[in-house]
Amino acid sequence: MKAKFEEKLAQLAFGDLSPSDAKKLEIEAQSQQEARETLRLYREMRDGLRGMAEVPEDQFSKERLRDAILKQGLKPRPDRYASNRSWLWMPAVACALGFGLVYARHTILPKNVNPQIVMSKKSLMAPPLLAVHEPIRVADNTPSPANSFIGPIQSPLRKTRTFGYRHRPRHHLEPNEVSPNILAVKLDGDDLNPDFGGANSTIPTSPSASDVPPMVATAASTGPIVFIDQDKDEQTGAQKATEVGNASNVLVGG
Amino acid sequence: MYWLAARLAIALMVGTVQADRLSPREKAVWNQVKPSVVTLFENDRPCGVAALIDDSGYFVAHSSGVSSAVPAGKSFGGKEVSFSVVSRDPLTQLVLLKATDWVSGTAKPFRIPNEEETDGGVILAVLPTGPIRAAYVSKHQPGVLKPSRRLVTLTEIRFEAPTQAVGGALILSESGELIGTLNATLDRPEGLTQNQTMNQNSLGQNQTARGPSIRIQNQILNAGPGEMTVAYAVGPEVVQHTLQGFLSSKHEAEYAMLGIFCTNAIGGGAYIQSVSPNSPAQKAGLRPGDILLSIGYNQIADQVAFATVMLQQKVGKKITLMIKRGRGSLLIDAVPSKSTE
Fold it and tell me: Quick check: A227 pLDDT over 70?
């Protein structure tokens, strides 16, 4: 179809032709399938345009002016430099995600740590060795590489876990459940594992927090220690006592 | 006989002189407990003192004063007493004696003080010749007794050294209660007097003292009327445990033992250096290299804590040990036996 003919069809549809030209073009368009279809589309377009609400010319301009002043005009101007620096949020978000991932990994770890004895200043200053000691809080917070494989010992009835399963989410074990996180298995005799020999030896079992009394700490000695020998002092007739500065390397029997 | 009478007269005279140095309150306490104290003799020579602990005639004394099986003694009131040895405790070196022909009600038995003694107070050390005043320094001094290497708390006392032997002296509180017996005196290095040893100890406790302050401190300590002796007695808790065992039907003190020797473990716990053969620890499966983490519900921070907890255990009563072996931890049941040393 020629463009000029299509333009005349558009004029016909929108009523821009004279009645004689319109009648002639109408007859001509009806004889052609493509022209008839094009005229129908233009007339549908015309009907759609006429269906739109008519806005008075003056009102239309005022609405646009008010909208421009009250809404568009009061909006903050976009910083033209901001768009240039918009890439900065990406590494920040990446860092935050990385930190969150690391933190989440640590929080789901089994807290297999060395227990920390919380003692009062007084007990640290003067540790009574044979006195009855108060129950202590056992804090299990930071894993220690040196003893990371030790199970939590705030209660001897806890099952022992290892760091080899650090990606597993922590869950509570049923009393009879055997966890894959348990390093050692229950031992019935020497033949099971020579490293954990002894018919008397078992791993910590049966977690029941309500039945387990709190762990009691005994004060450690960091001060001087006195050795009392069998030999007698010739002058005093008593056994000889010698003092060493630190008890840490002293061999003690019991 | 004449020689014995002369010795006794000299001892009583020295004792009278020593007693005169006491304050009126200390003299009153001494006069109150004097009937319950007996001087032991060996070869007609005073060698120790014994304290009445039961009205039926049971006395306790330090082993240094009891060498024969039937020791003899004389009370401060002049009455002769003969004894038989009932039991000996190798840990505390205490000996239980039974006085023959003892009449009940003759004297009031001693008792172990229950209340906490105040450090720095005045106590009495009763020698074969009588009481002397001593300073009560501390009862929290840890000490290792050889050869068993059992760790106990010691009562540290200091006093002006008398000319005669002080080993085995009875240690009485200010109110006349029996704290223990004098087990040992601090050994002094060759060439040093006891007073100089004292100065060294004082400086060891205060390492910040340097230069002129050291000289001033030496001058102060050297200005005293006589040499000071630093002595130790087994702590009252252990003594009380021993006396309870002595007064039981078995007449012997029992201390629980596993048969292991430990040092401090890096990172906490008691590192087992060796396990005695045929000991409860060996029967339970403990091995050298294991780290003891807890006994029952008592957490073991180091070897001192281990020894402290073991002193509280009972012979024949099963205990659960938590140990670390290699990369794992496990629980082991063990039954402590009676300590023989």
Answer: yes
Is the pLDDT at A205 greater than 60, yes or no? no
Question: Which residue in A149, A232, A236 sits closest to B132, CA to CA?
Answer: A236
Which of 212-231 (B) contact A at CB < 8 A?
229-231
The phi, psi pair for A168, rounded to 5°, reads: -80, 140
Is B285 in Cβ contact with A197 (below 8 Å)?
yes
Domain that holds residue A7: 3-71
Task: Enter the tokens of residue B29.
Answer: 């306490």
Cβ separation of B298 and A216 shorter than 8 Å?
Answer: yes
Interface test with B, best of A148, A236, A240 (most B CBs within 10 A): A236
pLDDT bin (cut points 50, 70, 90) of residue A94 is very high
Is A91 exposed, middle or buried (CB count within 10 Å of its CB: 0-12, 13-18, 19+)? exposed
User: Does residue A242 lie in a domain region?
Assistant: no
B256-338 under CATH 2.30.42.10, yes or no: yes
For A33-88, what is each residue's pLDDT tens digit?
Answer: 899 999 999 998 888 887 776 655 656 667 777 777 777 666 666 665 555 667 78
Please say whether the beta carbons of B125 and B183 come within 8 A. Answer: no
The pLDDT tens digits for B7-48 are 545 544 445 445 557 788 888 888 888 888 888 888 778 888
Nearest-by-Cβ selection for B184 from A162, A241, A253: A241
Q: Does A149 touch chain B (CB under 8 A)?
A: yes
CA dist list (Å): B275 to A152, B150, B258, B319: 26, 14, 9, 17
Q: What are the residue ranges spanned by the domains of chain B?
A: 2-99, 256-338
Which residues of chain B make contact with A195, given a CB cutoff of 8 A?
325-326, 328
Tokens of B239: 């003594």
Quick one: average pLDDT of A137-155? 39
Kindly report the CATH number that applies to the domain delimited by B2-99.
2.40.10.10
